[in-house]
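Intended use. Records like the one below are meant for learning the mapping from a protein sequence to its folded structure. Do not use them to infer anything beyond what is encoded.
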Amino acid sequence: MDVYGAMKRWGRLRLPVIHGLCACLLLSACGSLSTTDLDATDIAAAARPKSGTLQAEVDALARPMVDSGHTPGVAIGVMLPDGSQHFYGYGLADQGNGLTPDGDTLFAIGSLSKEYLAAVTALVVDEGVLSWDDTLEKLLPPGTKLSPDAAKITLLQLATHTSGLPRQPMTPQTLRYFAEYLWDGESFYRHFDTQYTLDYLADFSTSSQGVPQYSNIGYGLIGYILELHTGKTVDALLAEKITGPLGLHCTGYEPDSLPCNATRARGYAGDQPKFIKRGHPTPDWQFTHLMRGSAGLHSTARDLLTFASAHMKGQDTRFNGVLASNLRVRVPQAKEAAAVAWVVDDIGGEIITYQIGIVAGYTSYVGIDLAHHTAVVVLQNSFNWDNSVGHKILLRLAHMPQPG
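Structure written out for the chain above:
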């Protein structure tokens, strides 16, 4: 069957039909917080170490990702309870140069950016500049037109994805850009600038305030609010409060300007975009200034693991109090409980705190097991829904004997 020809004919359907189909696709593509559910058999198997070495455990889980064509390349970082960091690379960072990714290869990390923005927000709150209970009515510029539901959204609700705001507004423009994305891979968030989002808030209504519902525009608003009330850009705040103190020289919004001069992984199609062949290059996404803090960061496995370690008890005195305490802010009625930017789940009897980022041609995962003082980073240079490898490594670490 000529799939391309069939899709071209589909594209000539009337606009309302296209919008309806795109809405279904958009919900299926972006509707859940994660797809890392493991069935009981899989959980039991994942929790059992297969050998006595960390290298062999990671190899057994990571190599099939590349060998099967799931992703061109993958970089993995593991932090053990003693604080030691270990890095592993498989496949190709860029099919054009033949280099294998490692702990210092630069990837776009998508929604892992929210962890950094949330950490900045927690520190600004700790300094007394903002309060978690501040509402949008107070936080946004005087005269901003807000619906009653929008006016009462708090900073904490934005940070914990409990504001009732959607992942993104399902407007005709969003649907049109998403339809184009399926073919060309370009960002369907490129119209979410400040004015567009504020206009949306003027008529916003919800019946789900207080219930976890992942929202990219919610974190876009956090970045806007931070800039309004500190007088500094999100770039400057990130450098001042997070990447500078922690020495994260390979983390930033402008990958070509980072001082570490790291090799960049190139992004490729995977499970999405639907009509670009798996393994073919996809374009980098360009974000508006509003959405920059929500999903615009680039980083490495090494930097991400160092950032994760700052959430561990006793790892970094500057960050331990604020980040570790706010990490545990949750809404207990949901399986995917909302923390400040993180998700907290019971996976195979272990409590794992994690976040996933999927953007352009990249998939990223950071998971933390606070009870066992371990952390895992998994970076793929392909858009894929399956993020179970990070969970599985953490489960095996929990059952592996540790040195000393």
